[in-house]
Amino acid sequence: MRGPPARHPNDDAREQLPAPEGIIGAADELKPGDRVVYPNQGVCAVVGWEVKDIAGQKLELVRMTREEDGAAVMVPKGKVPSIGLRRVATGAQMEGVFHYLGAVYDDPELDWKIRHRDNADRLIAGGVLGVAEVVKGLHSLSRLRPLPTKEREQYDNARHLLVHEVSVSLGVPPGLAEDYIDYALMPPAGVKFDLKPPPAPVPLPSRPKKRRVVEEAEEGDLGLGDLGLGDLGIDLEGALEGAEVPGAEAEGAEGAEGADAGEGEAAGAEGVEPVPGVEEAAPEELPEAEEPVAEEEPEELPVRATRAAKPARAAEKPAKVEKPEKPEKAAEKKAARPAKAKKAEPEKPARAEKHAEKPAARKAATEKPAPAKKAAAKKPPAPKKAPAKKPAAEKPAAKRGGKKK
Amino acid sequence: MIRVVTLDPVDPTDMAALIRTLYQAFGLGTEYAGEKPVPAEAEGKDGRLDAITLLREVEPVRTFADDKVLYIAGSPLSLPPGPLGEPPCWGFADYGKERAVITTAKLPARGVTEASIETYRRRLAREAIHAIGHLWDLHHCVDARCAMHPSWSPSLAANPDSDLCTFCREKSERKIRLAKT
To answer: What is the number of H-type helices and E-type strands within chain A?
Structure first.
């Protein structure tokens, strides 16, 4: 038996779950006097058929009365299979529900989003056992901590539905049905039930479990570009030189980031802008260092290529530094990775302006980073060590230093 | 309006305290409507009164729309057994309707000391509020300090409060407001 048809147009792709027992597949199955359960509404009695003229259309409607308060419910005949109408639970089903309620259950879902969504699904399509699961789950949760208002309401609604269905199914007054339910849920001290194995839980649509996994993956992807170190042009080349293994590239880059940023800090925060002296200091490393940068930002390649008439070194550096390109970069990065790019981007123009205004400071910058870069360039083992040791620990320090400036 | 009817004699001072508490709990006028006989049909073989039959057969009192009637019996009450056995019965209410019954048989002994009488009154008030709460569509509450928490629950305090929790109070007030319209 198939589950209820999709409620929303996009739901077609969702997996079809087995329907709860007794679901009504067609309006023809209903007869006046039948008692059915309308999901989230309760037990209704079928009154008969009606044809109504609504918005110029003649609709054939099934007229029902909610037993609880006598409210009229009218459902178009064609909609009967899709709303999840089902027959009132049988005695055997009800016994299973009570054995489920009486079972020890101390593992409520603690993630409120998942819990709330699952409970809503159960109430709509889970049948009487689904409603019992909601009651049982929220009841066990309430023993651990007070329920939030929304869930307290959900619990009350679920209990209301369950009480009335038990009442109709067993033919007892609702007050007594509630006593039965609570006797199973919280038996008096010293009472132990001889329980049968409870029925299988209601299957729910599978959903992605946690978002964290995705975030971790994103973090792994971020690599160099996020900290804006590619733009700083400090020791990137030296650091990446050692990253020979393609698989270790990202790690190497990260480690180098930390190491280089640290050195950059030590050398002085002024060493942000590229300086001719610095470029000359490590000319051989540039072509190698260019590769990962190009891999990260393939969209920029055409821009660089247009300027590549000059020698490779000269062509690359301006591309890193040039201010007009930065907004483009920022836009591209934003589109790719929204979270970290935001932090890194806005600071760059400010820094650049500062340096433009202070030629003296600029001079200092030209002098200071040079030894640092040289040192980094002369240390071939440094990047090899970096991937293993430095990545996580030194990143924040580098960021903090950058902000202080 | 809440009308209290006794099926067995109750101390007038206890009754006065109960009426005062009910008035405070629901904000509705409460009065003592006299004593009525226990219907013979409700008497079981084991000396207990069948709560459902009792409510069905008991002599009615004059009521108006939305009036609630609370019967207080001295004998223990019984309920038909359910799928997992017979639940203990401290009282029974026609959910959302107008009649409820509670028993004083399960309450702590009244005694003669001030403390024991106070304990007895508090527990009597709690059971009365619980039963009338059912008449105002309240379900059992998960909060062990609420008067709507099941009376047999192991997490209930030895001398429980006779107050409704916020959720139950608001719900009952909403229902009462709607009923008054």
So the answer is: 20, 5
- Judged by a CB distance cut-off of 8 A, whether residue B166 touches chain A is no
From A87, A110, A140, the end of a domain falls on A87
**Measuring CA to CA, how many Å separate B73 from each of A72, B55, B68, B100, B101?**
39, 11, 16, 11, 7
Cβ <8 Å between B150 and A184: no
In A22-169, where do the E strands start and end? 35-38, 42-54, 57-66, 72-76, 86-87
Say whether A186 and B94 touch across the interface (CB within 8 A): no
Q: Which range marks the domain in which residue A231 is found? A: 215-404
- The ipTM, to two decimals, is 0.94
Let me know whether A108 and A241 are in one domain: no
Render pLDDT for A218-252 as a digit per residue (tens, 0 to 9). 555 554 555 555 455 555 444 444 444 444 343 43
Q: Using a CB–CB cutoff of 8 Å, tell me whether B89 touches chain A.
A: yes
Closest Cβ–Cβ partner in A94, A180, A189 for B87: A180
Interval A376-405: pLDDT, tens? 444 444 444 444 444 444 444 444 444 444
Asked if residue A234 and residue A112 are part of one domain, the reply reads no
The answer to whether residue B71 scores a pLDDT higher than 70 is yes
Segments of B9-160 assigned E as strands: 30-35, 49-50, 68-73, 77-78, 91-93, 99-103
The residue with greater pLDDT, A363 or A39, is A39
- B82, B94, B154 member nearest A180 (Cβ): B82
- Residue ending a domain, among A87, A102, A132, is A87
Domains of chain B listed by start with CATH number: 2-180 (3.40.390.10)
In this structure, the answer to whether residues A281 and A400 fall within a common structural domain is yes
Mind listing the pLDDT tens digit for each residue in B126-153? 999 999 999 999 999 999 899 999 998 8
The values of phi and psi at residue B167, to 5°, are -60, -50
What are the residues whose beta carbons fall under 8 Å from the beta carbon of B81, sequence distance 6 or more?
none
Query: Comparing A1-5, A22-26, B60-64, B113-117, which segment has the lowest mean pLDDT?
Result: A1-5
Per-residue pLDDT, averaged over A341-370, amounts to 45
**pLDDT score for B172:** 92
Give the CB-side neighbour count of residue A52, counting CA atoms within 13 A: 12
Which residues in chain A are contacts of B85 at CB distance < 8 A?
Answer: 183, 191, 193
Asked if A338 and A293 sit in the same domain, the reply is: yes
What pTM was estimated for this model as a whole? 0.63
Q: Contact at 8 Å (CB) between A160 and A40?
A: no
Q: Which chain A residue shows the shortest CA-CA distance from B93?
A: A175
- Based on the number of CB atoms within 10 Å of its own CB, is A225 exposed (0-12), middle (13-18) or buried (19 or more)? buried
Same domain for A370 and A282: yes
pLDDT tens per residue across span A175-188:
999 999 999 998 88
Consecutive H or E run containing B6: strand B2-6
Nearest CA in chain B to A179: B87
B89/A179 CB distance under 8 A: yes
Same domain, A158 and A286: no
